Amino acid sequence: MASYLLQRLAGTVPVLLLISLLVFLLIHAAPGDPTLLLLGEETNAAEVAKAKERWGLDRPLYVQYLKFIASAVAGEFGKSFKYAEPVANVIKSRLPATIELAMFSMVIAIVLAIPLGVWAGSKPNSWLDNVGTTFGLFGISMPSFWLGIMLILLLAGILNLLPTSGRSTYGIAGAEITGFYLLDSLIQRNWKAVWDAITHIFMPALALGVNMLGILMRVTRSAVLEVMNEEYVVTARAKGLAEKNIVWHHVTSNALIPVITVVGLELGTLLSGSIIVETVFAWPGSGSLLITALNARDYPLVTGIVMTYTAAFVIINLIIDGLYAVIDPRIRY
Amino acid sequence: MQSLTLESATEKNSSLAARWLPRLHAKAFTGGLIVFAFIAIGILGPTLAPEDPNKQELTAMTKSPQGIGSPHVLGTDNLGRDVLSRVIYGARVSLLVAFAVVFVSGFVGISLGAISGYLGGKTDFMIQKLVEVVWAFPPLLLGITIMAFLGQGLFNLILALVVQRWIPYCRVVRAQALTLRTREFVVASQCLGAGNVQIILRHILPNVIQTSLVIGTFAMASAIIAEASLSFLGVGVPPEIPTWGTMLADARIYISTAWWLPLFPGLCIFVTVLGINLLGDALRDILDPRLKRTGAGT
Questions:
Q1: Smallest Cα distance from B145 to chain A, Å
Q2: How many C-beta neighbours within 10 Å does residue B21 have?
Q3: Which residues contact B218 (CB under 8 A, 6 or more apart)?
Q4: What ipTM does this complex have?
Q5: Are B275 and B285 in contact (CB under 8 A)?
Q6: Looking at residue B254, what DSSP letter applies?
Q7: Chain A residue closest to B221 (CA)?
Q8: Which of A280, B48, B72, B157 has its CA 20 to 30 A from that of B164?
Q9: pTM of the predicted model over 0.90
Q10: For B230-285, what is each residue's pLDDT tens digit?
Q11: Which residues of chain B from 259 to 288 reach within 8 Å of chain A, CB to CB?
Protein backbone atom coordinates (compact mmCIF):
# COMPACT_ATOMS: atom_id res chain seq x y z
CA MET A 1 0.00 0.00 0.00
CA ALA A 2 2.85 2.39 0.86
CA SER A 3 4.40 1.71 -2.54
CA TYR A 4 1.07 2.31 -4.25
CA LEU A 5 0.67 5.67 -2.55
CA LEU A 6 4.27 6.64 -3.34
CA GLN A 7 3.64 5.74 -6.96
CA ARG A 8 0.51 7.86 -6.99
CA LEU A 9 2.39 10.72 -5.32
CA ALA A 10 5.08 10.56 -8.01
CA GLY A 11 2.32 10.51 -10.63
CA THR A 12 0.97 13.83 -9.41
CA VAL A 13 4.23 15.66 -10.21
CA PRO A 14 3.80 15.73 -14.01
CA VAL A 15 0.12 16.62 -13.56
CA LEU A 16 1.02 19.57 -11.34
CA LEU A 17 3.70 20.68 -13.83
CA LEU A 18 1.21 20.62 -16.70
CA ILE A 19 -1.30 22.52 -14.59
CA SER A 20 1.26 25.19 -13.76
CA LEU A 21 2.10 25.57 -17.45
CA LEU A 22 -1.60 25.86 -18.31
CA VAL A 23 -2.22 28.49 -15.63
CA PHE A 24 0.93 30.40 -16.58
CA LEU A 25 0.00 30.54 -20.27
CA LEU A 26 -3.60 31.47 -19.49
CA ILE A 27 -2.51 34.37 -17.36
CA HIS A 28 -0.15 35.66 -20.01
CA ALA A 29 -2.76 35.33 -22.74
CA ALA A 30 -4.84 37.86 -20.85
CA PRO A 31 -5.48 41.30 -22.22
CA GLY A 32 -4.52 44.18 -19.94
CA ASP A 33 -1.10 45.19 -18.72
CA PRO A 34 -0.48 44.62 -15.01
CA THR A 35 2.04 47.44 -14.80
CA LEU A 36 -0.48 49.97 -16.09
CA LEU A 37 -3.12 48.66 -13.71
CA LEU A 38 -0.86 48.92 -10.69
CA LEU A 39 0.91 52.17 -11.53
CA GLY A 40 -2.21 53.86 -12.87
CA GLU A 41 -2.74 55.43 -16.26
CA GLU A 42 -0.71 58.53 -15.46
CA THR A 43 2.73 56.91 -15.61
CA ASN A 44 5.49 57.56 -18.13
CA ALA A 45 7.34 54.99 -20.21
CA ALA A 46 10.44 55.08 -18.03
CA GLU A 47 8.51 54.18 -14.90
CA VAL A 48 6.70 51.36 -16.70
CA ALA A 49 10.00 49.96 -17.96
CA LYS A 50 11.47 50.17 -14.47
CA ALA A 51 8.49 48.36 -12.94
CA LYS A 52 8.61 45.70 -15.66
CA GLU A 53 12.28 45.12 -14.93
CA ARG A 54 11.63 44.90 -11.21
CA TRP A 55 8.88 42.30 -11.67
CA GLY A 56 10.76 40.41 -14.40
CA LEU A 57 8.01 41.05 -16.96
CA ASP A 58 10.53 42.20 -19.59
CA ARG A 59 12.10 38.72 -19.85
CA PRO A 60 11.04 36.16 -22.48
CA LEU A 61 8.05 34.02 -21.48
CA TYR A 62 9.96 30.78 -21.05
CA VAL A 63 12.46 32.47 -18.74
CA GLN A 64 9.55 33.78 -16.67
CA TYR A 65 8.05 30.29 -16.55
CA LEU A 66 11.34 28.61 -15.57
CA LYS A 67 11.86 31.19 -12.85
CA PHE A 68 8.32 30.59 -11.69
CA ILE A 69 8.83 26.81 -11.55
CA ALA A 70 12.12 27.22 -9.70
CA SER A 71 10.55 29.40 -7.06
CA ALA A 72 7.44 27.19 -6.87
CA VAL A 73 9.60 24.16 -6.10
CA ALA A 74 11.21 26.20 -3.34
CA GLY A 75 7.72 26.80 -1.96
CA GLU A 76 7.57 30.39 -3.14
CA PHE A 77 5.70 31.97 -6.00
CA GLY A 78 7.64 35.21 -6.28
CA LYS A 79 6.56 38.55 -4.94
CA SER A 80 2.98 39.81 -5.08
CA PHE A 81 2.62 42.96 -7.21
CA LYS A 82 -0.12 44.35 -5.04
CA TYR A 83 1.06 43.53 -1.53
CA ALA A 84 4.83 43.80 -2.29
CA GLU A 85 5.37 40.73 -0.14
CA PRO A 86 6.34 37.14 -1.01
CA VAL A 87 3.23 35.41 -2.36
CA ALA A 88 3.69 32.47 0.01
CA ASN A 89 3.41 34.81 3.00
CA VAL A 90 0.29 36.52 1.69
CA ILE A 91 -1.42 33.18 1.06
CA LYS A 92 -0.25 31.75 4.38
CA SER A 93 -1.83 34.65 6.27
CA ARG A 94 -5.21 34.05 4.57
CA LEU A 95 -5.28 30.26 4.40
CA PRO A 96 -6.33 29.51 8.02
CA ALA A 97 -9.56 31.50 7.55
CA THR A 98 -10.49 29.41 4.50
CA ILE A 99 -9.55 26.10 6.11
CA GLU A 100 -11.48 26.98 9.26
CA LEU A 101 -14.55 27.87 7.18
CA ALA A 102 -14.31 24.71 5.07
CA MET A 103 -13.88 22.51 8.15
CA PHE A 104 -16.82 24.10 9.94
CA SER A 105 -18.99 23.64 6.82
CA MET A 106 -17.93 20.04 6.58
CA VAL A 107 -18.84 19.41 10.22
CA ILE A 108 -22.28 21.01 9.75
CA ALA A 109 -22.86 18.94 6.61
CA ILE A 110 -21.74 15.65 8.13
CA VAL A 111 -23.55 16.11 11.45
CA LEU A 112 -26.84 16.86 9.70
CA ALA A 113 -26.57 14.71 6.59
CA ILE A 114 -25.49 11.33 7.93
CA PRO A 115 -28.25 10.81 10.55
CA LEU A 116 -30.81 12.18 8.10
CA GLY A 117 -29.55 9.90 5.34
CA VAL A 118 -29.50 6.85 7.61
CA TRP A 119 -33.01 7.51 8.88
CA ALA A 120 -34.33 8.08 5.38
CA GLY A 121 -32.57 5.05 3.93
CA SER A 122 -33.60 2.67 6.69
CA LYS A 123 -37.28 3.52 6.34
CA PRO A 124 -37.81 3.97 2.61
CA ASN A 125 -41.00 5.77 1.57
CA SER A 126 -41.87 6.76 5.15
CA TRP A 127 -42.63 10.41 5.95
CA LEU A 128 -39.10 10.70 7.33
CA ASP A 129 -37.73 9.50 4.01
CA ASN A 130 -39.86 12.01 2.13
CA VAL A 131 -38.72 14.88 4.32
CA GLY A 132 -35.10 13.76 4.05
CA THR A 133 -35.21 13.29 0.29
CA THR A 134 -36.80 16.68 -0.27
CA PHE A 135 -34.20 18.21 2.00
CA GLY A 136 -31.42 16.53 0.03
CA LEU A 137 -32.82 17.70 -3.28
CA PHE A 138 -33.15 21.27 -1.99
CA GLY A 139 -29.56 21.06 -0.77
CA ILE A 140 -28.08 20.09 -4.11
CA SER A 141 -30.17 22.65 -5.99
CA MET A 142 -29.37 25.60 -3.73
CA PRO A 143 -26.97 28.22 -5.08
CA SER A 144 -24.70 28.73 -2.05
CA PHE A 145 -24.20 32.44 -2.63
CA TRP A 146 -27.94 33.07 -2.79
CA LEU A 147 -28.48 31.12 0.42
CA GLY A 148 -25.75 33.30 1.94
CA ILE A 149 -27.50 36.49 0.88
CA MET A 150 -30.85 35.22 2.14
CA LEU A 151 -29.33 34.22 5.48
CA ILE A 152 -27.88 37.71 5.83
CA LEU A 153 -31.28 39.17 4.94
CA LEU A 154 -33.12 37.01 7.47
CA LEU A 155 -30.75 36.32 10.39
CA ALA A 156 -28.74 39.52 10.30
CA GLY A 157 -31.11 42.01 8.69
CA ILE A 158 -34.59 41.19 9.95
CA LEU A 159 -33.93 39.17 13.13
CA ASN A 160 -30.66 40.92 13.94
CA LEU A 161 -29.20 37.76 15.49
CA LEU A 162 -25.85 37.37 13.75
CA PRO A 163 -23.15 39.65 12.34
CA THR A 164 -23.23 40.06 8.55
CA SER A 165 -19.54 39.73 7.73
CA GLY A 166 -15.97 39.18 8.85
CA ARG A 167 -14.38 36.66 11.19
CA SER A 168 -14.61 38.44 14.54
CA THR A 169 -15.73 41.58 16.29
CA TYR A 170 -12.90 44.07 16.59
CA GLY A 171 -11.06 43.81 19.90
CA ILE A 172 -12.63 40.55 21.09
CA ALA A 173 -10.26 37.99 19.58
CA GLY A 174 -7.21 37.10 21.68
CA ALA A 175 -3.66 36.57 20.51
CA GLU A 176 -3.19 34.52 17.35
CA ILE A 177 -1.63 31.10 17.92
CA THR A 178 -2.77 28.88 15.08
CA GLY A 179 -4.65 31.41 12.99
CA PHE A 180 -7.88 29.43 13.49
CA TYR A 181 -9.98 31.79 15.58
CA LEU A 182 -12.17 29.10 17.10
CA LEU A 183 -9.22 26.97 18.11
CA ASP A 184 -7.21 29.95 19.38
CA SER A 185 -9.98 31.21 21.62
CA LEU A 186 -10.64 27.67 22.89
CA ILE A 187 -6.96 27.26 23.80
CA GLN A 188 -7.02 30.56 25.64
CA ARG A 189 -10.33 29.68 27.31
CA ASN A 190 -11.69 32.98 26.12
CA TRP A 191 -15.36 31.97 26.00
CA LYS A 192 -16.56 35.34 24.79
CA ALA A 193 -14.24 35.04 21.81
CA VAL A 194 -15.37 31.45 21.17
CA TRP A 195 -18.98 32.60 20.98
CA ASP A 196 -17.98 35.56 18.83
CA ALA A 197 -16.13 33.28 16.39
CA ILE A 198 -19.11 30.89 16.20
CA THR A 199 -21.60 33.67 15.49
CA HIS A 200 -19.37 34.92 12.68
CA ILE A 201 -18.66 31.56 11.08
CA PHE A 202 -22.15 30.06 11.31
CA MET A 203 -23.84 31.72 8.32
CA PRO A 204 -20.97 31.44 5.81
CA ALA A 205 -20.35 27.85 6.89
CA LEU A 206 -24.01 26.92 6.46
CA ALA A 207 -24.14 28.58 3.03
CA LEU A 208 -20.93 26.88 1.94
CA GLY A 209 -21.94 23.49 3.32
CA VAL A 210 -25.46 23.31 1.92
CA ASN A 211 -24.56 21.56 -1.34
CA MET A 212 -22.34 19.07 0.45
CA LEU A 213 -25.17 18.47 2.91
CA GLY A 214 -27.56 17.61 0.09
CA ILE A 215 -25.10 15.37 -1.70
CA LEU A 216 -24.02 13.55 1.48
CA MET A 217 -27.61 12.99 2.52
CA ARG A 218 -28.49 11.50 -0.86
CA VAL A 219 -25.40 9.30 -1.00
CA THR A 220 -25.89 8.09 2.59
CA ARG A 221 -29.52 7.28 1.89
CA SER A 222 -28.82 5.22 -1.22
CA ALA A 223 -25.84 3.48 0.41
CA VAL A 224 -27.99 2.53 3.40
CA LEU A 225 -30.79 1.33 1.11
CA GLU A 226 -28.34 -0.93 -0.67
CA VAL A 227 -26.79 -2.36 2.49
CA MET A 228 -30.23 -2.98 4.06
CA ASN A 229 -30.73 -5.80 1.54
CA GLU A 230 -27.44 -7.55 2.32
CA GLU A 231 -27.54 -11.04 3.78
CA TYR A 232 -25.75 -10.14 6.99
CA VAL A 233 -28.50 -7.64 7.74
CA VAL A 234 -31.11 -10.37 7.25
CA THR A 235 -29.02 -12.60 9.53
CA ALA A 236 -28.81 -9.91 12.19
CA ARG A 237 -32.54 -9.49 12.01
CA ALA A 238 -33.10 -13.26 12.19
CA LYS A 239 -30.93 -13.36 15.33
CA GLY A 240 -33.49 -11.02 16.86
CA LEU A 241 -31.33 -7.93 17.22
CA ALA A 242 -33.15 -4.68 17.78
CA GLU A 243 -33.72 -2.74 14.55
CA LYS A 244 -31.90 0.26 16.05
CA ASN A 245 -28.76 -1.81 16.60
CA ILE A 246 -28.93 -3.26 13.11
CA VAL A 247 -29.23 0.13 11.46
CA TRP A 248 -26.55 1.91 13.46
CA HIS A 249 -24.02 -0.94 13.81
CA HIS A 250 -24.37 -3.31 10.90
CA VAL A 251 -25.70 -1.01 8.23
CA THR A 252 -24.16 2.38 8.88
CA SER A 253 -20.58 1.20 9.28
CA ASN A 254 -20.76 -0.56 5.93
CA ALA A 255 -22.63 2.21 4.18
CA LEU A 256 -20.01 4.76 5.15
CA ILE A 257 -17.47 3.79 2.48
CA PRO A 258 -19.12 5.58 -0.45
CA VAL A 259 -19.97 8.41 1.93
CA ILE A 260 -16.30 8.96 2.76
CA THR A 261 -15.42 9.09 -0.94
CA VAL A 262 -17.97 11.80 -1.43
CA VAL A 263 -16.74 13.73 1.62
CA GLY A 264 -13.27 13.72 0.07
CA LEU A 265 -14.46 14.78 -3.36
CA GLU A 266 -16.65 17.49 -1.90
CA LEU A 267 -13.81 18.87 0.21
CA GLY A 268 -12.28 20.12 -3.03
CA THR A 269 -15.62 21.59 -4.05
CA LEU A 270 -15.80 23.31 -0.66
CA LEU A 271 -12.43 24.94 -1.35
CA SER A 272 -13.58 26.42 -4.64
CA GLY A 273 -17.04 27.18 -3.26
CA SER A 274 -15.32 29.22 -0.59
CA ILE A 275 -14.22 31.67 -3.30
CA ILE A 276 -17.79 32.82 -3.84
CA VAL A 277 -19.10 32.45 -0.28
CA GLU A 278 -16.13 34.37 1.13
CA THR A 279 -16.97 37.16 -1.28
CA VAL A 280 -20.57 37.29 -0.03
CA PHE A 281 -19.58 37.44 3.65
CA ALA A 282 -16.35 39.48 3.26
CA TRP A 283 -14.61 36.53 4.90
CA PRO A 284 -10.87 37.33 4.88
CA GLY A 285 -9.73 34.00 3.41
CA SER A 286 -7.75 32.93 0.37
CA GLY A 287 -10.90 32.71 -1.77
CA SER A 288 -11.73 36.38 -1.51
CA LEU A 289 -8.00 37.04 -1.89
CA LEU A 290 -8.15 35.33 -5.29
CA ILE A 291 -10.86 37.71 -6.47
CA THR A 292 -8.87 40.71 -5.24
CA ALA A 293 -5.75 39.37 -6.98
CA LEU A 294 -7.64 38.71 -10.23
CA ASN A 295 -9.04 42.22 -10.32
CA ALA A 296 -5.56 43.67 -9.80
CA ARG A 297 -3.99 41.26 -12.32
CA ASP A 298 -1.51 40.28 -9.66
CA TYR A 299 -0.01 37.42 -11.74
CA PRO A 300 2.23 35.84 -9.09
CA LEU A 301 -0.49 35.93 -6.45
CA VAL A 302 -3.16 34.47 -8.76
CA THR A 303 -0.81 31.72 -9.88
CA GLY A 304 0.12 31.05 -6.27
CA ILE A 305 -3.48 30.72 -5.10
CA VAL A 306 -4.58 28.63 -8.07
CA MET A 307 -1.60 26.32 -7.61
CA THR A 308 -2.19 26.06 -3.85
CA TYR A 309 -5.86 25.16 -4.37
CA THR A 310 -5.08 22.65 -7.10
CA ALA A 311 -2.27 21.01 -5.14
CA ALA A 312 -4.59 20.77 -2.13
CA PHE A 313 -7.28 19.20 -4.31
CA VAL A 314 -4.85 16.63 -5.74
CA ILE A 315 -3.48 15.76 -2.29
CA ILE A 316 -6.95 15.42 -0.75
CA ASN A 317 -7.89 12.94 -3.47
CA LEU A 318 -4.71 11.01 -2.77
CA ILE A 319 -5.46 10.84 0.96
CA ILE A 320 -8.99 9.63 0.27
CA ASP A 321 -7.58 6.81 -1.87
CA GLY A 322 -5.35 5.81 1.01
CA LEU A 323 -8.23 5.99 3.48
CA TYR A 324 -10.23 3.37 1.57
CA ALA A 325 -7.81 0.66 2.56
CA VAL A 326 -7.96 1.72 6.19
CA ILE A 327 -11.75 1.69 6.31
CA ASP A 328 -12.42 -1.29 4.09
CA PRO A 329 -10.02 -4.16 4.71
CA ARG A 330 -11.24 -5.83 1.53
CA ILE A 331 -9.45 -3.18 -0.54
CA ARG A 332 -5.74 -3.86 -0.96
CA TYR A 333 -3.40 -1.98 -3.24
CA MET B 1 -21.63 -14.20 -20.00
CA GLN B 2 -21.49 -11.78 -22.90
CA SER B 3 -24.53 -13.15 -24.61
CA LEU B 4 -26.32 -13.02 -21.30
CA THR B 5 -25.72 -9.28 -20.91
CA LEU B 6 -26.68 -8.82 -24.54
CA GLU B 7 -30.01 -10.50 -23.92
CA SER B 8 -30.74 -8.55 -20.80
CA ALA B 9 -29.85 -5.36 -22.64
CA THR B 10 -32.33 -5.99 -25.42
CA GLU B 11 -34.92 -7.04 -22.91
CA LYS B 12 -34.35 -3.78 -21.08
CA ASN B 13 -34.89 -1.80 -24.26
CA SER B 14 -38.05 -3.61 -25.34
CA SER B 15 -39.70 -3.13 -21.96
CA LEU B 16 -38.65 0.49 -21.79
CA ALA B 17 -42.04 1.80 -22.88
CA ALA B 18 -43.76 -0.48 -20.41
CA ARG B 19 -41.57 0.78 -17.61
CA TRP B 20 -41.94 4.40 -18.63
CA LEU B 21 -45.60 4.92 -17.99
CA PRO B 22 -46.00 3.74 -14.40
CA ARG B 23 -42.76 5.49 -13.51
CA LEU B 24 -43.79 8.76 -14.97
CA HIS B 25 -44.43 9.76 -11.42
CA ALA B 26 -44.67 12.99 -9.55
CA LYS B 27 -40.93 13.61 -9.72
CA ALA B 28 -40.70 13.54 -13.50
CA PHE B 29 -43.93 15.46 -13.87
CA THR B 30 -43.00 18.27 -11.46
CA GLY B 31 -39.47 18.53 -12.83
CA GLY B 32 -40.66 18.49 -16.41
CA LEU B 33 -43.29 21.11 -15.71
CA ILE B 34 -40.80 23.49 -14.09
CA VAL B 35 -38.24 23.07 -16.86
CA PHE B 36 -40.88 23.45 -19.55
CA ALA B 37 -42.23 26.61 -17.89
CA PHE B 38 -38.81 28.22 -17.75
CA ILE B 39 -38.01 27.27 -21.35
CA ALA B 40 -41.34 28.80 -22.41
CA ILE B 41 -40.55 31.95 -20.42
CA GLY B 42 -37.13 32.06 -22.04
CA ILE B 43 -38.47 31.71 -25.58
CA LEU B 44 -41.43 34.06 -25.12
CA GLY B 45 -39.33 36.53 -23.11
CA PRO B 46 -39.74 39.64 -25.28
CA THR B 47 -43.53 39.14 -25.49
CA LEU B 48 -43.99 38.36 -21.81
CA ALA B 49 -41.78 41.04 -20.32
CA PRO B 50 -43.80 44.18 -19.54
CA GLU B 51 -40.79 46.48 -20.04
CA ASP B 52 -37.40 46.72 -21.69
CA PRO B 53 -35.13 45.10 -19.07
CA ASN B 54 -32.58 47.88 -19.36
CA LYS B 55 -35.00 50.81 -19.35
CA GLN B 56 -34.22 53.07 -16.42
CA GLU B 57 -37.14 54.85 -14.87
CA LEU B 58 -35.65 57.50 -12.62
CA THR B 59 -38.99 58.43 -11.07
CA ALA B 60 -39.56 54.86 -9.87
CA MET B 61 -36.30 53.76 -8.27
CA THR B 62 -36.18 50.92 -5.69
CA LYS B 63 -39.95 50.41 -5.62
CA SER B 64 -41.10 47.37 -3.64
CA PRO B 65 -43.31 44.74 -5.33
CA GLN B 66 -46.77 46.19 -5.79
CA GLY B 67 -48.78 43.12 -6.70
CA ILE B 68 -50.50 41.98 -9.86
CA GLY B 69 -52.02 44.72 -11.98
CA SER B 70 -49.53 47.40 -10.97
CA PRO B 71 -46.84 48.64 -13.38
CA HIS B 72 -44.01 46.87 -11.51
CA VAL B 73 -45.28 43.52 -10.23
CA LEU B 74 -41.95 42.51 -8.70
CA GLY B 75 -40.78 46.05 -7.98
CA THR B 76 -37.88 47.98 -9.47
CA ASP B 77 -34.15 48.06 -8.75
CA ASN B 78 -31.89 50.94 -7.73
CA LEU B 79 -31.87 52.29 -11.30
CA GLY B 80 -35.63 52.02 -11.72
CA ARG B 81 -35.44 48.93 -13.95
CA ASP B 82 -38.40 46.54 -13.82
CA VAL B 83 -37.40 43.42 -11.83
CA LEU B 84 -39.97 41.13 -13.49
CA SER B 85 -38.71 42.01 -16.97
CA ARG B 86 -35.12 41.49 -15.91
CA VAL B 87 -35.93 38.12 -14.34
CA ILE B 88 -37.68 37.04 -17.56
CA TYR B 89 -34.76 38.11 -19.73
CA GLY B 90 -32.43 36.44 -17.23
CA ALA B 91 -34.12 33.10 -17.96
CA ARG B 92 -33.21 33.53 -21.63
CA VAL B 93 -29.52 34.00 -20.98
CA SER B 94 -29.28 31.32 -18.28
CA LEU B 95 -31.02 28.67 -20.37
CA LEU B 96 -29.25 29.63 -23.58
CA VAL B 97 -25.84 29.38 -21.92
CA ALA B 98 -26.79 26.15 -20.16
CA PHE B 99 -28.06 24.49 -23.35
CA ALA B 100 -24.98 25.58 -25.29
CA VAL B 101 -22.71 24.27 -22.54
CA VAL B 102 -24.49 20.92 -22.32
CA PHE B 103 -24.51 20.52 -26.09
CA VAL B 104 -20.85 21.43 -26.63
CA SER B 105 -19.53 19.51 -23.65
CA GLY B 106 -21.68 16.52 -24.56
CA PHE B 107 -20.34 16.57 -28.11
CA VAL B 108 -16.72 16.88 -26.99
CA GLY B 109 -17.03 14.41 -24.11
CA ILE B 110 -18.94 11.72 -25.95
CA SER B 111 -16.65 11.92 -29.01
CA LEU B 112 -13.44 11.81 -26.99
CA GLY B 113 -14.81 9.11 -24.70
CA ALA B 114 -15.90 6.90 -27.58
CA ILE B 115 -12.59 7.39 -29.42
CA SER B 116 -10.60 6.84 -26.24
CA GLY B 117 -12.41 3.67 -25.25
CA TYR B 118 -12.75 2.18 -28.72
CA LEU B 119 -9.25 2.86 -30.06
CA GLY B 120 -7.35 2.33 -26.80
CA GLY B 121 -3.55 2.45 -26.91
CA LYS B 122 -1.73 5.75 -27.33
CA THR B 123 -4.84 7.75 -28.20
CA ASP B 124 -6.52 6.52 -25.03
CA PHE B 125 -3.43 7.35 -22.97
CA MET B 126 -3.23 10.92 -24.33
CA ILE B 127 -6.94 11.62 -23.84
CA GLN B 128 -6.89 10.21 -20.32
CA LYS B 129 -3.85 12.36 -19.43
CA LEU B 130 -5.80 15.39 -20.61
CA VAL B 131 -8.75 14.29 -18.47
CA GLU B 132 -6.46 13.89 -15.48
CA VAL B 133 -4.92 17.35 -15.82
CA VAL B 134 -8.17 19.23 -16.40
CA TRP B 135 -9.95 17.27 -13.67
CA ALA B 136 -7.18 18.12 -11.18
CA PHE B 137 -8.51 21.68 -10.98
CA PRO B 138 -11.06 22.27 -8.25
CA PRO B 139 -14.46 22.91 -9.89
CA LEU B 140 -15.18 26.55 -10.79
CA LEU B 141 -11.56 27.62 -10.19
CA LEU B 142 -10.49 26.97 -13.79
CA GLY B 143 -13.63 28.70 -15.03
CA ILE B 144 -12.94 31.76 -12.89
CA THR B 145 -9.33 31.91 -14.07
CA ILE B 146 -10.29 31.58 -17.73
CA MET B 147 -12.98 34.25 -17.49
CA ALA B 148 -10.77 36.61 -15.53
CA PHE B 149 -8.01 36.47 -18.08
CA LEU B 150 -9.86 36.06 -21.35
CA GLY B 151 -12.45 38.70 -20.46
CA GLN B 152 -16.23 38.73 -20.19
CA GLY B 153 -18.43 37.60 -23.05
CA LEU B 154 -20.83 34.84 -23.99
CA PHE B 155 -18.32 32.84 -26.01
CA ASN B 156 -15.67 32.89 -23.29
CA LEU B 157 -18.32 32.05 -20.71
CA ILE B 158 -19.41 28.96 -22.62
CA LEU B 159 -15.77 27.95 -23.08
CA ALA B 160 -15.09 28.42 -19.37
CA LEU B 161 -18.08 26.26 -18.44
CA VAL B 162 -17.38 23.55 -21.02
CA VAL B 163 -13.73 23.17 -20.08
CA GLN B 164 -14.42 20.76 -17.23
CA ARG B 165 -17.97 19.65 -17.98
CA TRP B 166 -17.10 17.31 -20.87
CA ILE B 167 -15.16 15.06 -18.51
CA PRO B 168 -18.04 13.12 -16.88
CA TYR B 169 -19.36 12.22 -20.35
CA CYS B 170 -15.89 11.23 -21.48
CA ARG B 171 -15.25 8.96 -18.49
CA VAL B 172 -18.57 7.14 -18.57
CA VAL B 173 -18.65 6.79 -22.36
CA ARG B 174 -15.06 5.52 -22.40
CA ALA B 175 -15.89 2.87 -19.82
CA GLN B 176 -18.88 1.76 -21.90
CA ALA B 177 -16.91 1.82 -25.16
CA LEU B 178 -14.23 -0.35 -23.57
CA THR B 179 -16.73 -3.15 -23.01
CA LEU B 180 -18.65 -2.52 -26.24
CA ARG B 181 -15.62 -2.96 -28.46
CA THR B 182 -15.27 -6.62 -27.52
CA ARG B 183 -18.95 -7.42 -28.16
CA GLU B 184 -19.95 -9.67 -31.04
CA PHE B 185 -21.72 -7.06 -33.12
CA VAL B 186 -18.66 -4.81 -33.09
CA VAL B 187 -16.26 -7.64 -33.87
CA ALA B 188 -18.61 -8.78 -36.65
CA SER B 189 -18.60 -5.31 -38.23
CA GLN B 190 -14.82 -5.23 -38.02
CA CYS B 191 -14.65 -8.57 -39.82
CA LEU B 192 -16.97 -7.23 -42.51
CA GLY B 193 -14.49 -4.40 -43.06
CA ALA B 194 -16.24 -1.50 -41.37
CA GLY B 195 -13.95 1.45 -40.57
CA ASN B 196 -13.38 2.84 -37.10
CA VAL B 197 -15.46 5.95 -37.73
CA GLN B 198 -18.37 3.88 -38.99
CA ILE B 199 -18.25 1.53 -35.99
CA ILE B 200 -18.11 4.39 -33.51
CA LEU B 201 -21.04 6.17 -35.18
CA ARG B 202 -23.17 3.08 -35.85
CA HIS B 203 -22.47 0.81 -32.91
CA ILE B 204 -20.83 2.69 -30.05
CA LEU B 205 -22.75 5.97 -30.00
CA PRO B 206 -26.33 4.58 -29.99
CA ASN B 207 -25.39 2.50 -26.96
CA VAL B 208 -24.07 5.38 -24.89
CA ILE B 209 -26.79 7.93 -25.67
CA GLN B 210 -29.12 7.07 -22.78
CA THR B 211 -26.45 7.40 -20.13
CA SER B 212 -25.22 10.62 -21.71
CA LEU B 213 -28.71 12.04 -21.56
CA VAL B 214 -28.78 11.53 -17.80
CA ILE B 215 -25.31 13.07 -17.38
CA GLY B 216 -26.42 15.96 -19.59
CA THR B 217 -29.39 16.75 -17.36
CA PHE B 218 -27.23 17.06 -14.28
CA ALA B 219 -24.59 18.97 -16.26
CA MET B 220 -27.28 21.47 -17.16
CA ALA B 221 -28.17 22.05 -13.52
CA SER B 222 -24.56 22.61 -12.59
CA ALA B 223 -24.01 24.86 -15.63
CA ILE B 224 -26.85 27.15 -14.53
CA ILE B 225 -25.40 27.50 -11.03
CA ALA B 226 -21.86 27.96 -12.39
CA GLU B 227 -22.99 30.63 -14.87
CA ALA B 228 -24.77 32.49 -12.09
CA SER B 229 -21.70 32.14 -9.84
CA LEU B 230 -19.36 33.57 -12.47
CA SER B 231 -21.75 36.42 -13.27
CA PHE B 232 -22.14 37.07 -9.56
CA LEU B 233 -18.36 37.37 -9.20
CA GLY B 234 -18.38 39.85 -12.08
CA VAL B 235 -16.52 37.58 -14.50
CA GLY B 236 -19.52 36.14 -16.36
CA VAL B 237 -21.62 37.82 -19.03
CA PRO B 238 -21.04 41.52 -19.81
CA PRO B 239 -22.89 43.80 -17.35
CA GLU B 240 -25.37 45.15 -19.93
CA ILE B 241 -26.97 41.70 -20.32
CA PRO B 242 -29.46 41.01 -17.51
CA THR B 243 -28.88 37.62 -15.90
CA TRP B 244 -29.88 36.16 -12.57
CA GLY B 245 -26.25 36.13 -11.43
CA THR B 246 -25.57 39.79 -12.25
CA MET B 247 -28.90 40.80 -10.69
CA LEU B 248 -27.80 39.11 -7.46
CA ALA B 249 -24.43 40.83 -7.61
CA ASP B 250 -26.12 44.22 -8.09
CA ALA B 251 -28.53 43.45 -5.25
CA ARG B 252 -25.82 42.73 -2.70
CA ILE B 253 -25.45 46.27 -1.42
CA TYR B 254 -29.21 46.70 -1.09
CA ILE B 255 -29.84 43.60 1.02
CA SER B 256 -30.92 45.57 4.07
CA THR B 257 -33.13 48.04 2.19
CA ALA B 258 -34.65 46.12 -0.74
CA TRP B 259 -35.35 42.46 0.04
CA TRP B 260 -37.02 41.80 -3.34
CA LEU B 261 -33.84 42.52 -5.31
CA PRO B 262 -31.90 39.43 -4.14
CA LEU B 263 -35.03 37.30 -3.56
CA PHE B 264 -36.48 36.88 -7.05
CA PRO B 265 -33.43 36.18 -9.23
CA GLY B 266 -32.08 33.73 -6.65
CA LEU B 267 -35.44 32.01 -6.37
CA CYS B 268 -35.46 31.59 -10.16
CA ILE B 269 -32.02 29.93 -10.11
CA PHE B 270 -33.07 27.66 -7.26
CA VAL B 271 -36.39 26.59 -8.78
CA THR B 272 -34.93 26.01 -12.26
CA VAL B 273 -32.09 23.92 -10.89
CA LEU B 274 -34.52 22.04 -8.64
CA GLY B 275 -36.70 21.24 -11.65
CA ILE B 276 -33.76 20.02 -13.72
CA ASN B 277 -32.48 17.88 -10.85
CA LEU B 278 -35.94 16.34 -10.36
CA LEU B 279 -36.06 15.54 -14.05
CA GLY B 280 -32.53 14.15 -13.91
CA ASP B 281 -33.40 11.90 -10.95
CA ALA B 282 -36.42 10.56 -12.78
CA LEU B 283 -34.51 10.04 -16.03
CA ARG B 284 -31.75 8.23 -14.16
CA ASP B 285 -34.21 5.92 -12.44
CA ILE B 286 -35.84 5.10 -15.75
CA LEU B 287 -32.88 4.96 -18.14
CA ASP B 288 -29.86 3.98 -16.14
CA PRO B 289 -30.18 3.16 -12.45
CA ARG B 290 -26.56 1.96 -12.37
CA LEU B 291 -25.39 5.57 -12.63
CA LYS B 292 -26.56 6.08 -9.07
CA ARG B 293 -23.60 4.15 -7.78
CA THR B 294 -21.08 6.26 -9.68
CA GLY B 295 -22.45 9.28 -7.89
CA ALA B 296 -23.27 11.07 -11.14
CA GLY B 297 -25.47 14.02 -10.49
CA THR B 298 -25.43 13.70 -6.76
A1: 8
A2: 7
A3: B276, B277, B280, B296, B297
A4: 0.84
A5: no
A6: G
A7: A141
A8: A280
A9: no
A10: 998 888 888 788 889 889 888 888 887 888 888 889 999 999 999 999 988 888 88
A11: 259, 262-263, 266, 269-270, 273-274, 277-278, 281
